[in-house]
Each structure stands twice: as structure tokens, then as C-alpha cells.
Design a protein that fits this description.
Layout (H helix, E strand, L loop, with lengths): L6 H8 L2 H12 L6 H23 L2 H12 L1 H33 L4 H11 L4 H13 L4 H11 L3 H16 L3 H25 L1 H24 L1 H9 L1 H25 L4
Helix pairs in contact: 2-5, 3-4, 5-6, 5-10, 6-7, 7-8, 8-9, 9-10, 11-12, 11-13, 12-13
Amino acid sequence: RELSKLPWLNRILLSIPRMQKIDLLLEQGNVQYPLGYLIGITLLLAFTGFIGGLLITTNFIFAIIAAALLGTLPYFYIHIKKRRRMRKFQEQLPDALDLMARSLRAGHSFSSGLKMVSDEFEDPIGTEFEKVVDEINYGVGVPDAMKNLSSRVDCNDIKYFVISVIIQRETGGNLSEILENIAHIIRERFKFEGKVRVLASEGKFSALILIALPFVVGFAVFIFNQEYLKPLTSDPAGRIMILVAIIMMMVGIFIIKNIIKIKV
């Protein structure tokens, strides 16, 4: 994959190891723009935030914070898009495995089953399986093509599928029955995850209230008594207090998120 349309920038980005991981994030989110475009947008937003923060507050620290916040917006957008796409892939996977199992029982080859999934399902699972079919058609071995699928898709369930296919091709066995069992396990895990989500909903709602409360109170005080909050922006000690409060809020959000996040 090209990281940039500009040859010189592409060579520079290829020489930086972490750029490959960010490019993988773009691929997982099915973002059509190259990595060089993302970096350009990030730098532009960061520069805009720095200049805007400097003009509005005339404070260097706030300008840096504004630049950092705006500069990370593209990354968060791609991360959210990737998470939604991987979630949809996970939801499509049981049906895709059932389709492959039925095709194998009907006498089709494994490659034909992959082709059927790529034709019948929409993005993301149709797109990813189509890449596997293309790799196999171009001469890549099935185990290597399956490993490439596992490295592209950030989904734990796909690893069971890949490992099962690789082991079955080496040792033999009824692959259709294995795929049906994997699909059944994934569906049962979805049911259990739904129960856990319901039980954890009260904690999530409490976390949202705790996170939103300082901002709601601050906005209400600003509406009814603007003079009360002026020392926070005009006095240097007030600006330091705001900065400390923001840092403490971020730490608190991180802790609360890890408390209410239950992996299944």
C-alpha cells in the first residue's frame, strides 16, 4: 500500500515503523484516503487550533491544548469508524461461517465458499473475504492468505476461524462441522454479552452523569453569572486551576471507563 501519492513523502513514511500501524488502522476503517492525506489534515487542524487558541486566549498553554485537541480529531474519527466496522464484521461472521459450512456440505471447495461469502455479504466481511479470494487467485497460499486476513481484521473471533482452517488443511477433519461450531459459539457469546451490557447499563449511566455534571454546572453558572467565572480566565492562578481540572477530568474519565468496561 502506498502511504502517500507523493513519492518523497511515501519514502519517508515507509521508513517510519509506526506509520505502518496507523496505515493498518486506515485499512481497518476502510478509509479511502492515504496516510499522507491524514497527516496533512492533522497538521492543518493542529495549526488552526494553535493559532485560534492563541488569538482567543492569548495564552500559549491553551493554544497548545487547542492544537492537540484539534490535531487528534482525525485519529478519533478513524478509530470510531474502525471500531464500528469491526463490530459489524463480528456480527456478520456467524452467518458467513454458516454459509461456508453449507457450501462445503454441498460439495464446493473452500475457495468457492470464500467467493460465495464475498458475493453475498456487504462490507466489511464481503470486502475482506474478497481480498482473501484475490490473494489465493494470485498465487498466495491459503494459510498465508488466512493469516493476512487475521492481521487485517481486529477481531478475536476471526482468529479461531483462521486457526481452524490452517489446522484442518494440515491434519484433515470435517471443516463444515468446525465452522458451524464456531458460528454457534460466537452467537452464544453475543447473547451473554447482551446480558452483561444490560447489567452494566446502570454503571454507564452513572458515569455519564458524573462526566457531564461539571460541564453542565459550569455552563449554567456562565449563563446566570458571568462575573463569577471571570477570575478563572483573567487570573493566572485561575488558568492553572482550569488546566489541572481538565487533567483530573481526563484521568477520572479514563478510570471510570476502565471500571465500567467489561470484556466478554
